[in-house]
Amino acid sequence: MAPDAQVFSGGVAVITGAGSGIGAGLARRAGVLGMTVVVADVNHATAKATADAIIAGGGKAEAQSVDVSRPEELDRLAELVFDRHGEVRLLINNAGIETVGYSWEVPAARWEATLNINLHGVIHGVRAFVPRVIASGKEAWIGNLSSVGAFGQMPGQTAYIVTKHAVQAFSECLYLEMELKNLPIHVSAIVPGMMRTNIFNPEHGTDEPGQSQGHRRAMFEMMRDYGMDLDEGCRLFLEQMAQNRFWAHSQPEMSTQIMGARAQFLTGQTLPVMPDLARQIAAD
Ligand SMILES: NC(=O)c1ccc[n+]([C@@H]2O[C@H](COP(=O)([O-])OP(=O)(O)OC[C@H]3O[C@@H](n4cnc5c(N)ncnc54)[C@H](O)[C@@H]3O)[C@@H](O)[C@H]2O)c1
């Protein structure tokens, strides 16, 4: 039997940002494997659509409206889930947004939203759920959405890149905290390469600096045309998590290339290296 079919054949999965993209793909996969899926998203309509699709396929799911940028909403979600189900086997802190624009031009509110959703949403997901998971005494798996962007630089996406470097660091420390405390909680950094989602949808960037719209559109079109199929990527993520791997990749070759360049940058202490893609986009 495949490892994910063994490990995730039952129990409760909580997935944030599961109304769309990778979160929705992970929710569908967890539902197919047999888990009861709590589909959490700030957008209730899309969360409900994901939950309805899981139920229509014979699975178990419920939609919950949650804004992960508000710690108290994650506390409320954890309380509700434990009151109703008494356990969480799989927690995936997935909700995230992209932000495009030069560092000094991104409005303060957009900077705050990016940090609060992408970074604080992950931290407070862990803070809200882990004490209850520990108290339940059951084995559990936590996946935090890192990115290949956690290992490189991308001028014009600085706000996003900052949060992904931080989520990666948080996940590494969290892994070690579980080891130090000898807790049966497995932590994974989920590292998507490029998957076909809505994250660069031009409609999501209306409060970004006007001249950054070309960059957003170029990324959106590249992802639409060359991004990996969501269902296959999400199947791979859960398979690797079920094997208790810290690293869960969608496109391992892309991760290896970007991590290798990072290692060279650090060991050589070179100047930051301009990605080819950044030059291409700036030239268009
Ligand atoms: N798509 C990729 O190739 C890729 C690459 C690397 C990392 N990631 C990461 O994967 C995660 C999911 O991204 P995606 O590409 O599926 O994007 P997406 O835009 O398709 O989905 C993101 C979901 O998060 C939800 N969301 C946004 N703000 C929220 C909030 N405050 N509270 C709760 N939910 C909220 C959105 O409503 C949406 O349903 C993100 O953390 C992203 O950084 C994606």
Q: Short description, anyone?
A:
The protein is of the alpha/beta class and 284 residues long. It has helices spanning 3-7, 21-33, 44-56, 71-85, 108-136, 158-180, 213-226, 230-242, 252-268, 276-283; strands spanning 12-16, 36-41, 60-65, 90-93, 140-145, 185-191, 247-249. Helix 2 packs across helix 8 and helix 5 packs parallel to helix 6.
Topology readout:
Elements: H1 3-7, E1 12-16, H2 21-33, E2 36-41, H3 44-56, E3 60-65, H4 71-85, E4 90-93, H5 108-136, E5 140-145, H6 158-180, E6 185-191, H7 213-226, H8 230-242, E7 247-249, H9 252-268, H10 276-283
Parallel strand pairs: 1-2, 1-4, 2-3, 4-5, 5-6, 6-7
Helix pairs in contact: 2-3, 2-8, 4-5, 5-6
The protein binds nicotinamide-adenine-dinucleotide (NAD).
Q: How would you describe this protein?
A:
It is a single chain. 53% of the residues lie in helices and 13% in strands. The protein is α/β, with parallel strands linked by helices. It has a 7-stranded parallel sheet with strand order 3-2-1-4-5-6-7, with helices on both faces. Helix 2 (21-33) runs parallel beside helix 3, helix 2 crosses helix 8 and helix 4 (71-85) packs parallel to helix 5. The chain is globular. The chain starts with a helix and ends with a helix. The mean pLDDT is 97. The chain binds nicotinamide-adenine-dinucleotide (NAD). Nicotinamide-adenine-dinucleotide is lined by residues 16-17, 19-23, 41-43, 46, 66-69, 94-97, 117, 145, 147, 192, 194-195, 197-199.
